[in-house]
Amino acid sequence: MYSTVFKLLPFLDAIRLNVLLFVRRYIFKSGKINFSQTGEEIIIQWILKDVKKGFYLDVGCHHPYKISNTFQLYLNGWHGIAIDANPSLIAKWSRKRKNDIPLVAAISDEEKEVTFYEFKESEVNTMDESMVKEWKKKFNYRSERKLTTQTLTSVLDKHLLKNQSIDLLTVDVEGNDFNVIKSIDLSKYRPKLIVVEIHGFDLSNIQGNEIYQYLTAQKYTLVSFATMNGYFLDAKI
After folding, report:
1. Sorting pLDDT into bands at 50, 70 and 90, what band is 86?
2. Banded model confidence at residue 59, pLDDT cuts 50, 70, 90
3. Residue 133, CA distances (Å) to 68, 122, 139, 143, 148 in order
4. pTM of the full structure
5. 193 phi and psi, to 5 degrees?
6. What is the Cα–Cα distance from 190 to 201, expressed in whole angstroms?
7. Centroid of chain to Cα 232
8. Alpha-carbon span 199 to 178, nearest angstrom
9. Within 10 A of 46 (CB to CB), how many other CB atoms are there?
10. How far apart are CA 225 and CA 194, in angstroms?
11. C-alpha to C-alpha distance for 192 and 179, rounded to whole angstroms
12. Rounded to a whole number, what is the distance in angstroms from the first to the last CA of the chain?
């Protein structure tokens, strides 16, 4: 890992990460570093343990390192397409994760004009007006702007190489997650594993959740749910 990061990251970032890895492993002896928000990468790697150098779609990718579901995968030799509506975050991604394809785009189930609400805490940026009311009470609201959304299928039609399989789709877009899921043609582009943030998921009534209903109808199986994310594995494989 120590030498590998110099091939994957800018020099100073590689130095910082190696120092952090050394301190955690040999001084605090606390094991692996978790880059994701609530341990998502640990579950992903367990489910996809047989995939060595896979391909991911990271929708609502946010920062290239911080609270990232795919950074550890990137360090393990994976690569993929990273999508976010925030141009400054995608600019960072372009500088820091050169093996990925970073795209500025707002994804939804149809092409339409939406309002994108931005906060100082950029991880809670959203297109969902119902989320904005709640977030304004907790976070520092900055601005809003108009965007035209695209479907995930249309983005993949333009940017995915022919015959490239998709091992992972991870979606975290603060309230618009179901629309993102509906925007990919799963008969054409079929990720092995879909990880999606689900707000208000009731484990005692999973049949009543719209994301669960939709993905199970598309022949995906819910194999795990932790904190706020559902993990759906392609039942056809």
Report:
1. very high
2. very high
3. 25, 16, 10, 14, 22
4. 0.88
5. -130, 135
6. 24
7. 14
8. 10
9. 11
10. 12
11. 19
12. 31
